[in-house]
Design goal:
This protein is mostly helical. It has helices spanning 2-5, 9-40, 43-67, 70-75, 101-112.
């Protein structure tokens, strides 16, 4: 993944366009297989078309996840890196609905001291 982040912007754009062309070609092939399946009345060609179409959807999903990953957005300056050090919210003061009344009374007794 780090090698993908190191790609310059023009090469990354070219890679994305090639992947989009590959997805379009897979969908076109799937449609041709399904048309042949209806012409010849063969169920196996219909299954092959569905498999090719699902491969195209999978490739498109992986492409979108890869190009818009947080690491990639951070490398392009579109997302701020997380701050160093410990930050956040402590969950020690929260009382959850499934906590028993005994825990709530212990917490309130501890605060009263």
């Amino acid at each position: 993944m780090t090698a993908f982040l190191a790609l310059p912007a023009p090469l990354l754009t070219l890679t994305a366009l090639v992947m989009v062309a590959l997805v379009v070609a897979l969908v076109a092939w799937a449609l041709q297989l399904m048309q042949a399946a209806t012409d010849r009345r063969e169920f196996s060609l219909m299954l092959a078309g569905c498999m090719v179409c699902s491969a195209a959807v999978g490739l498109a999903t992986v492409m979108v996840i890869t190009v818009t990953s947080p690491g990639r957005l951070e490398a392009r300056g579109l997302l701020l890196p997380p701050p160093n050090g410990e930050s956040g919210v402590s969950l020690d003061a929260l009382v959850l609905p499934w906590d028993s009344d005994r825990l709530i009374s212990q917490a309130s007794a501890g605060e009263a001291r």
